[in-house]
Every structure is written in structure tokens, then in C-alpha cells.
Specification:
Its cofactor is heme. The protein is of the alpha+beta class and 553 residues long. The protein contains 22 helices and 16 strands. A five-stranded mixed beta sheet has the order 3-4-12-9-5, with helices on both faces. Strand 7 and strand 8 form a beta hairpin. It starts with 9 loop residues before the first helix and ends with a strand.
């Protein structure tokens, strides 16, 4: 009998003693052995200290001993692979810490220079070879999306987030016809309109005033926002006219608020990218949102963006129900090619549009910023590109290059692809999970349920395909070896889960870049300028101030 306990409590304490015993590698340790039991069950001044001691003991077990035991048991035989950091084998925390340094994929790439296969976390293995790309992402792969994607999945996930292969195939079929090149080219007038509106702003800035200074990164992002909103929903936000991304909307309660479109996308992803790699992401996220300004701001701006998206989708649905025939991506969500109604739920339509507006605006703006950066860092390359554009591009009365005249320009495409190679909008490895029975990847047998990936940043710096991999060299895409290099060129991923929007981003990039290099002279406002980056899910370039001046052509 334990003295001093109220009647009936003795059995509870004995049960608690059994429940909270923890196994050590040798022998047993009783968590209660170092403190009086009365402190845990009676309302005494020392009760809080005792409870904290117990919780810390349990935390020690969960955060250190249990992962360490799992690491030592090594049931999946992952200890044979080198760790990316000292503690990668027992915790995802080291990989998450890389996020705070700003450019996680560059750190992983450095580690891959010494080891073609790395262990990034307790259950995550990173490969770097073309054979691994085919095995993990190819059309015949048995691997499925998982890992970090499980922490972002929602009931009405868009095309990128959805995990189930059959669900993904069904969603992709709905959109595939609209994203065919022949159909996208019918929307060239929408892209041309945005190019025209952007050049009008640039013209106004530098006409009769000499060179003007603009933040190129900001302006091309406004361009891509306007382009994808028009292509997807046949709507205008007025960002290029105002020079900002602030959109005024009416809320569900009849009030009004202003939503920053770009930061509404970036803020929640900036926060989530800190923890999404951990299996306890969903549990800890609500806690962080209550104590962290980064996470609470991300949640609020994410909710604001969803309100904005809801307003845009509701307006498009209203026009459809009113019989207004519009030519955009939303049409394929309302009806099939035969005109039969799909009857999708509003939440499903909004989920797809969220993915389209996010990927369609952010990644293209990233690519345009990087290609201009590389061109200005390499004046000889810019000169050669300008000669090709001046010779072959056909422009309309407003000086906008037609897609038909630029889509087959080899050096223009080479400049874009070389920029995508060095700084792909998504640099990290896209997570897949091996099938339950296990799977062989590049000669290594990987146990079932293991997260595997190939970092895009590393794959596209493979010296076997890209000699002098850090050099911006568009001419490499014009050589006989370019076809072989495609095996390690995956800025749009690969296989059945490859980016459905690759054609539309090339249309936007080719039309805008050709129009700009033909119309303006550019230079860095600071001659020693170096672009800085922040890598969340996408690789975000920082501001890029350029001097622009009209050319005499």
C-alpha cells in the first residue's frame, strides 16, 4: 500500500506506474522513481514542476530515444546511405533547418557532390541520377505522391496536390484538352493584351525622361497574375494599371477588404515550407499559428486569398449560369468537349483554380526574372538573342511579338531552357513513396513506404550532360548532345505527373521576352548586382531593379 493516498486512488497510481514505464536499451527506468507520487495526484504547489518533469521525460523519449532506437533497428536498411547531415538519420529537423538558410536545394546539392544517394531524413532518400528520375517519376513507376504532399492534402485538392493516381488522372483528363498547345494558342490575344499593357507602363516611365528604373521582378509578376486570371477566368484585376497586386473584394458579410494577391500566395507557403517535411506537421501547425507571427500572418493572408479566389470563381460561375459564353480554362470545368455539364461542386472548381492561379502566376514570373538576370549578366548572349529576335520576330501595331513568329526561334528557346536549368522555379525533389512491396531505384532496393526524390536543382547540374554546369550557356541546347541532356532536364517534373501548364508558360515567356528585348535596352541599376533567393516550395528571386530605355528600331 502507498501511504497518504485517498481511498480508491491506489489502483490508479499502480496503473499509472505501469503505463509510464519506458524501456531503455538495457533494463527499465521508472519515470516516477525520482519524484513523490503525491505531487502528481494532489493539488500541491510543486505539482506543476512534477508534471513538467514527466512531460520533459516523455518528450525526451519521443524526440530522441524513440527515433534513435528506430535508427539503430534500421528495419528499412536505410543506414547504408550517407546522411546529408549528422542527424538526418534520426530526425527531419536538420532538413527543416536548411529552410531557414534561404536556399535549401543548394545545400542538398553540395552534399550530393560527394554522394549520389543521400539520406535526408529518417524515412527520406534522395537520388541524383537520370536512372532514378525514370524510376521515380516515369510513366511506369509504381511510386505514388506522398511525404510532404500528405501534409497539404485537402478534400478538394487541385491537380498538383492530389495524391491518388486515379483521382489525379480524372482531374487531368478534365483539363488536358484545354491545355493542348493548339487550344492555348487561341488565347494568344490574352497574353498579347498583357504584354501591351506592361510595355505601356514601361513606355510611360521612360518616354522623354531618359532611362527609368523599375523592379523587373515585381512587374513581371503583375504581368503573370493578370495573364493567368484572364486565361483561367476571363477577368481583369487591374494590377498592371495600378502597379500593385492589391485587389478590393466584397466579403461574405457585405463588407470590403483589400487582398494582396502575390503575398496571399506566398505568406502561407513561406510558413508551411518550414514544417511540411515532418510527419507531425498537421499537429504542430495550429499551435504555431497561435504563437508565431510568421504562421499567424500566413494563415490570415491565406484565408484572404481564398476569399479573393472565391469571389473570382463566383463571378465566373454567375456568368456561366447566365449563359455568357467565354473562352477560358474555367469552361472545361463547367462542361466537357461535347457541351455536357460536369456538375462539379463549387469547392472542387475553386480547388482547381487555386492550383492554376498559383502555379500559373508564380512559376512563370520566377522564370522570366531569371532569364533576364542571366541575359544581363552575359551581354554577348543578349546580343545574339536580340539579333535573332530583330531578324525574325513579327510584331503587331503595338510592338507585341506574335507567338507564331517566335515559337520556333531556337536561340530564344535555348535561353529560356538554360535559365530553367540553372534556376528551376521548383528546385527541391518532388516526394514520392515506394510501393508496399518495395522497389529498386538505380540499383538500390528501397523498402516499401519510403519517401524518395530527385532534387531538380541537382539533376540539372549533372556534368555528364551539362559540362561546366554552373555556366549559363544557351548554346548547349543547340548541340547534338541536347537530346541526351533531356534525360536530366526536369523543370516541369516528368511522367504522368509532369506539369500540365508547360505549354502556356512557354507562350507567355516567348512573347514577353521577345517583345522586351526588341523594344528596350536594359541594365542593372547597380552594376555589381547579385540576385538573392528565398526557397520555400518555389525558388523566389528577390527584387531586381533595372534601368530601361527605349531602343531605336
Amino acid at each position: 500500500m502507498i501511504m497518504g493516498l485517498p481511498e480508491g486512488r491506489e489502483a490508479k497510481v499502480e496503473k499509472a506506474r505501469k503505463d509510464i514505464k519506458v524501456q531503455k536499451l538495457v533494463g527499465e527506468y521508472d519515470v516516477f522513481s525520482g519524484c513523490p507520487y503525491q505531487l502528481l495526484i494532489q493539488d500541491t504547489p510543486a505539482k506543476n514542476d512534477a508534471m513538467i518533469a514527466v512531460l520533459l521525460s516523455l518528450a525526451l523519449v519521443l524526440l530522441i530515444f524513440q527515433p534513435l532506437i528506430t535508427y539503430l533497428r534500421d528495419t528499412k536498411r536505410l543506414r547504408r546511405f550517407p546522411n546529408a547531415t549528422c542527424f538526418s538519420g534520426i530526425s527531419n529537423i536538420p532538413f527543416m533547418i536548411l529552410r531557414y538558410r534561404g536556399f535549401r536545394s543548394k545545400e542538398v546539392h553540395r552534399a550530393h557532390q560527394h554522394h549520389p544517394v543521400l539520406r535526408l531524413g529518417p524515412n527520406t532518400v534522395s537520388f541524383s541520377s537520370p536512372a532514378a528520375i525514370r524510376a521515380i517519376y516515369g510513366h511506369a513507376t509504381p511510386c505514388a505522391k506522398g511525404g510532404s504532399y500528405e501534409n497539404t492534402l485537402t478534400p478538394h485538392a487541385g491537380l498538383i496536390e492530389v495524391i491518388d493516381k486515379q483521382d489525379h488522372a480524372a482531374k487531368r483528363r478534365i483539363l488536358s484538352n484545354a491545355f493542348a498547345t493548339r487550344n492555348l494558342e487561341q488565347w494568344e490575344f490574352k497574353v498579347a493584351d498583357k504584354v501591351r499593357r506592361l510595355t505601356q507602363r514601361f513606355d510611360h516611365a521612360c518616354d522623354d525622361k531618359g532611362p527609368a528604373v523599375v523592379d523587373f521582378r515585381k512587374w513581371v509578376n503583375l504581368f503573370t497574375v493578370e495573364a493567368i486570371v484572364d486565361i483561367a477566368l476571363s477577368q481583369r484585376l487591374g494590377c498592371l494599371e495600378r502597379g500593385d497586386d492589391l485587389v478590393r473584394i466584397t466579403t461574405s458579410d457585405g463588407g470590403e477588404k483589400t487582398v494582396p494577391f502575390i503575398e496571399g500566395l506566398h505568406a502561407p507557403r513561406r510558413a508551411l515550407s518550414m514544417i511540411v517535411w515532418s510527419p507531425w506537421c498537421r499537429r504542430v501547425k495550429p499551435v504555431l499559428e497561435s504563437i508565431s507571427a510568421l504562421f499567424s500572418t500566413g494563415r490570415q493572408l491565406g484565408e484572404d486569398f481564398n476569399d479573393l479566389l472565391g469571389c473570382l470563381v463566383k463571378e465566373r460561375v454567375r456568368k456561366h449560369e447566365a449563359g455568357e459564353e467565354l473562352d477560358d480554362l474555367a469552361t472545361c470545368l463547367f462542361q466537357d468537349k461535347a457541351g455536357q455539364a460536369r456538375n462539379l461542386q463549387f469547392a472542387a472548381i475553386q480547388g482547381q483554380m487555386s492550383t492554376l492561379l498559383d502555379a500559373g502566376s508564380d512559376t512563370t514570373a520566377i522564370a522570366l526574372t531569371h532569364v533576364m538576370y542571366f541575359l544581363l549578366k552575359n551581354p554577348d548572349i543578349l546580343k545574339r538573342l536580340r539579333e535573332e529576335v530583330d531578324l525574325h520576330a513579327v510584331v503587331d501595331t503595338d510592338g507585341v511579338a506574335t507567338y507564331a513568329s517566335v515559337k520556333n526561334l531556337p536561340y530564344l528557346r535555348a535561353c529560356l531552357d538554360e535559365s530553367l536549368r540553372l534556376y528551376p522555379p521548383v528546385c527541391t525533389g518532388l516526394h514520392r513513396v515506394t510501393p508496399p512491396e518495395g522497389y529498386e531505384i538505380d540499383g538500390h532496393w528501397i523498402a516499401g513506404g519510403t519517401v524518395v526524390a530527385v532534387p531538380i536543382y541537382t539533376a540539372q547540374r549533372n556534368p555528364a550532360f551539362f559540362p561546366e554546369p554552373e555556366r549559363y550557356a544557351p548554346e548547349r541546347w543547340l548541340s547534338e548532345k541536347a537530346k541526351d541532356a533531356q534525360a536530366s532536364f526536369i523543370p516541369f517534373s516528368a511522367g504522368a505527373r509532369g506539369c500540365i501548364g508547360r505549354n502556356i508558360t512557354y507562350i507567355e515567356q516567348m512573347m514577353l521576352l521577345a517583345s522586351l528585348v526588341r523594344r528596350y535596352d536594359f541594365g542593372f541599376d547597380d552594376e555589381g548586382f547579385q540576385l538573392v533567393h528565398e526557397e520555400a516550395f518555389n525558388l523566389w528571386p528577390g527584387p531586381m531593379r533595372l534601368r530601361i530605355q527605349r531602343r531605336l528600331v
